[in-house]
Design a protein that fits this description.
Enolase-like, domain 1; 2 domains; seven-stranded parallel β-sheet; four-stranded antiparallel β-sheet; TIM Barrel; single chain
Length: about 375
């Protein structure tokens, strides 16, 4: 069954975080998020553009997404007859970069297709190998080590299966040592968000003593070659994130031995179709993957749940409960995590949750309908 989108509605919303989230890029107190509603007849599918408020993770930010969607993505999607949502990314792929903007629309059309077919999104994309998703949490840089330890204690008590802590120069080896002394047996990883260079190799080797699951993207956001050099020097697996923006980047990284794990982010890859290609490449090469997060609202979180049902998502991802970030989410019910640190995959049509329309409307900063 083909699919044609009649209208796109863009919404820019602003959501305050329960607690600030800090990485090597800086500190975030609230999220500006672009939502995409794709409509065919009377049925709507929803997507989320996962770009941040500033162009620090990659070149995209909420201010750049809005005109790009209006001027470039929407005209190539509206009223076009697609045989399948799998064809959407090819329709916009000649737009250089800006994968998150493209991916938000592509994800909305996948959700629309699933709702038209009255099936769960995970089935529409070919998932379903996991119907309970193992969950980890990402904890940002804190004001003190004691504050970090308290947060980790809270999340471990809540049942989360893996702790990811952000690191950066001045907040790395000694802090990880304190964490390991307090929590000797938890699954622990460190995310550097490109804060280091090869000049820090000897310093980074000190992290080997803490038996981490992985160190995520320690070097430059666009580098693969230096990561290969660093991985040869480390016992700890390197996980690549920012520099894997296409399936071919993964093929290059795997061939060079630049990593042993890859983080798949739906927005960074440009949607479900390229994310699935990346998943399949990693699976064939015996490279495990996990689903990364970008402080998404419930819509993006629900998409991450669907993605995580693919078979090679064997490590706990950053798919956690809504309440970790939001006093109130824009979906109903909110995403919840069991005492065992898992999320049960919803079985309703599309991404499986309802939109809390009244609350969503209260958060809208600007809105645009495109026909």
């Amino acid at each position: 069954m083909g699919i044609k989108v009649d209208r796109l509605i863009l919404r820019h919303i602003r959501m305050p975080l329960v607690h600030f989230f800090e990485t090597s890029f800086g500190r975030t107190h609230e999220r500006d998020i672009i939502l995409v509603e794709a409509i065919a007849g009377e049925i709507s599918g929803w997507g989320e553009v996962t770009a941040g408020e500033n162009p620090f993770y990659n070149e995209e930010w909420t201010g750049s997404v809005w005109p790009l969607l209006i001027d470039y993505v929407a005209p190539r999607v509206l009223q076009h007859e697609f045989a399948s949502p799998a064809d959407v990314s090819a329709r916009t792929s000649h737009i250089r970069g800006h994968k998150m903007a493209q991916g938000g629309v592509e994800a909305a059309i996948w959700d629309l297709q699933a709702r038209l077919a009255n099936e769960p999104l995970y089935k529409a994309i070919g998932g379903g190998a996991h119907l309970e998703i193992p969950c980890g949490v990402s904890i940002g840089i804190q004001d003190s080590v004691e504050q970090l330890l308290e947060k980790i204690e809270t999340e471990v008590t809540a049942g989360y299966q893996r702790i990811k802590m952000k690191i950066g120069p001045g907040w790395d080896v000694d802090v990880v040592r304190r964490v390991r002394e307090r929590f000797p047996s938890i699954k622990l990883m460190a995310d550097a968000n490109s804060a280091y260079t090869l000049a820090d190799l000897e310093h980074l080797k000190k992290l080997d003593e803490f038996y981490l699951m992985m160190i995520e993207q320690p070097l430059a956001h666009d580098d693969i070659i230096d990561h290969a050099k660093l991985q040869r020097a480390l016992e700890t697996p390197i996980c690549l994130d920012e520099c894997i923006r296409t399936p071919h980047h993964a093929e290059q990284a795997i061939e060079m031995g630049a990593c042993r794990i890859i983080n798949i982010k739906l927005g960074r890859m440009g949607g479900f179709t390229p994310s699935k290609r990346l998943h399949d490449i990693c699976r064939a090469a015996n490279i495990p993957v996990w689903c990364g997060g970008m402080l998404e609202s419930g819509i993006g979180r629900a998409h991450n749940i669907a993605l995580s049902t693919l078979p090679n998502f064997v490590l706990p991802g950053d798919v956690s409960a809504s309440k970790r970030y939001w006093k109130r989410d824009i979906i109903s019910p909110a995403v919840e995590v069991s005492a065992g640190g898992t999320i049960t995959v919803p079985q309703g049509p599309g991404f499986g949750y309802e939109i809390d329309a009244d609350y969503l409307d209260s958060l809208v900063v600007r809105r645009e309908m495109l026909r």
